Amino acid sequence: MALNPDFVGRTYPPVGTYQVGREKIREFATAIGDSNPLFHDVEAASAAGYADVIAPPTFAFALAFQAMISVVSDPELGLDYSRVVHGEEKFIYARPIVAGDELVVATVIDTIRAAAGNDMITVRSDIATVAGEHVVTTYSLTVARGTA
Amino acid sequence: MPTFAQVNVGDALPAQDFPITRLNLVKYCGASGDFNYIHWSESFANEVGLPGVISHGMFTMAEAGRVVTDWIGDPGQLCEYSVRFTRPVAVPDDLVGTTISVSGTVAEKLDDNRVKVDLTATCKGETVLGRAYAIVRLP
User: Fold this and answer.
1) What's the CATH superfamily of A5-20+55-144?
2) Distance to chain B for A105, nearest Cα, Å
3) What is the DSSP letter of B76?
4) Exposure pattern of A118-128 as b/e (b: 16+ CB <10 Å)?
5) CATH architecture of B4-20+56-137
6) Tens of pLDDT, residues B89-118
7) Would the CB atoms of A57 and B82 count as touching at under 8 Å?
8) Residue spans per domain, chain B
9) Which pTM value belongs to this model?
10) Which of A31, B22, B70, B84 could disulfide-link to B31, CB 3.0 to 4.6 Å?
11) Nearest CB to A88; choose among B69, B75, B85
12) Over the stretch B47-69, which tens digit does the pLDDT of each residue have?
């Protein structure tokens, strides 16, 4: 059954604050095999003008993903998570995420459509510091194959 | 880092190959928090009609982005990064895995010292990312 387009604009409250840890950034950078010193070395990051190591650009998705779980498991929306694949991803950065940041993720359903038998839903996540400084916005298109 | 003045439309960024094994996917599950069964369970992946365990799209995106961030040096100068996942990247259960080949070309010079780079990513000769681009700020 196709998803209900009336859910466009539905917001999901932040699931708490996310404390960005230096070791978590290093773990993530190591997992993607990226040895850029700005992800690992505080002195190198400092020399580049950052307060601490910065996160790889796609790290922001790990935060957005936690928030998106609220969306894909929303029983009223009825997305079939077992059929889900990632369709598109876009990041718009105001600045990189830096170790020590305390971040909150505001999540909203941006678009819903059906095409070729698939349900497609785009979720927008605005990631900001607890003080209200915008850091990065993500747009994630999720495709549920054969469910529409 | 290249400067805005040095860069011309059509310039090629240094291309890179990125091997992906099951171990990479396991590490990425843990680092990203995305434990979807399709990234580690062959039987589940087959059951839902996939060609086997597939890479996280975000892992592929992370690797492709390195062609850009290695070029500029400071990943903090990335302004925008966008991809479509056009084809699943199957990762066989051996120690060899598969490989993604990524290249980039300067597509446009924008205002405010920003440059748009178009990216191409292929696996076994087939495109795995569509409309992939990054916008970076150069000195």
Assistant:
1) Hotdog Thioesterase (3.10.129.10)
2) 16
3) G
4) bbbbbbbbbbb
5) Roll (3.10)
6) 999 999 899 999 999 999 999 999 999 999
7) no
8) 4-20+56-137
9) 0.95
10) A31
11) B85
12) 988 889 999 999 999 999 999 99
- A37 interfaces chain B, CB cutoff of 8 Å: no
Tokens 């495709």 correspond to what residue? A143
pLDDT of A1 > 70? The answer is no
Please give, rounded to a whole number of angstroms, the shortest distance from the CA of B94 to a CA of chain A.
19
Q: Given CB atoms, is B38 within the 8 Å cutoff of chain A?
A: yes
What is the complex's ipTM, to 2 decimals?
0.96
DSSP A32: T
pLDDT at A45: 98
Q: What is the CA radius of gyration of chain B?
A: 16
> What is the amino acid identity at position A50?
Y
A30 in B contact zone (CB under 8 Å): yes
User: Domain locations in chain A?
Assistant: 5-20+55-144
Contacts of B48 in chain A (CB under 8 A): 82-83, 145
